[in-house]
Amino acid sequence: MREATESLQDIAEALRLAVSLVLSGDADLVEIVVLSLRVSLTATAVACAIGLPLGALVAVARFPGRGTALVVMNALMGLPPVVVGLIVYLHLSRAGPLGFLGLLYTPTAMIVAQTILIAPIVAALSRQVLEDLHDEYAAQFRSLCLTRAQVVGALLWDGRYALMTVALAGFGRAVAEVGAVMIVGGNIDHLTRVMTTAIALETSKGALPMALALGIVLMALALGVNAAVHGLRASAVRHAYV
User: Fold this and answer.
1) pTM, whole model, 2 decimals?
2) Gyration radius (Cα) of the chain, Å
C-alpha cells in the first residue's frame, strides 16, 4: 500500500512538473513541438496533393483490374511504419540510389517517410467518399457532358468539407508516427527530435515530466485540430441552409 501511494505521488509530481513546463513555454519543448508540426503538416499537405486526386480518379474511372487496384489501395493503408522507414532509409543512405541528396537524418527524410505512410490512407478514404458522391451526381454529370478531369474537379470541390476529415485522419497518423521517423530521422536533438520520438526517449530515461508534457501537448493538438475541422464543417452546413 505504501509503495502504491508513493508511486501515485511520483506520478502526480511528474504531472505537476509537466504542466509547469507547458505553461512556462520551455524552450526545448517548444522546439520539439514546432518541428513536429512542421514535419507532420508538410507530410499531410503533400499526401493530400497526391492522394485526393488519385482517390477521385479511381472513384470515377472504370477500367480492367479496378477491383485489384482497390484491394491494393486499401491494403496499403496498413503499411508497417518500420518497413516504410527501412525502405526510405535504404534509398537515402550513402549506398542507396538517392544517397547523393544527403537527406538521411534530416526533417526532409521524415517528411518523405510520413508522406508514404499517409498518402494511401488519404487516397483510399477519399475514394470512398467521392465514389458515393459520384454515384449521386452521375446522371447530372453525363447530362452536362463533362470530361473526366472536370468531374474530378467538381467532386473534389463539392466534397471538400468531407475531405477535411480525410486530411485529419492523415494528419493524426503522421503526428503519432514513431517507427519510421526514428529510422530515417535518428531522433537527433535540436535537429530531428519530434514529439513521439522524444516521448519514447524521455520515458526510457525516466524523465517523466518532459514525456508527460509532450504527451499533453500532443493530445491538445489532436483535440484542437479535430475541433477546428468540426467547426469548419458545422459553419459550412449552417451557411448552406441560410
Assistant:
1) 0.85
2) 22
> What integer is the mean pLDDT of 157-186?
88
C-alpha cell at 40: 507532420
Domains and CATH numbers, the chain: 26-240 (1.10.3720.10)
Looking at residue 74, the DSSP 8-state letter turns out to be H
Spatial distance between the Cα atoms of 140 and 126, rounded to a whole number of angstroms: 21
Question: C-alpha distances in angstroms, 225 versus 35, 183, 199, 222?
Answer: 17, 27, 20, 5
Element (H, E) at 201: helix 195-205
**How far is CA 30 from each of CA 5, 130, 193, 211, 217, rounded to the nearest angstrom?**
33, 38, 12, 13, 10
The sign of the CA dihedral 154, 159, 163, 164 is positive
pLDDT at position 164 is 87
Residue 126: name the closest of 23, 53, 197, 198 by CA: 53
Q: How far apart are CA 175 and CA 166, in angstroms?
A: 14
Q: What are φ and ψ of residue 98, in 5° steps?
A: -110, 15
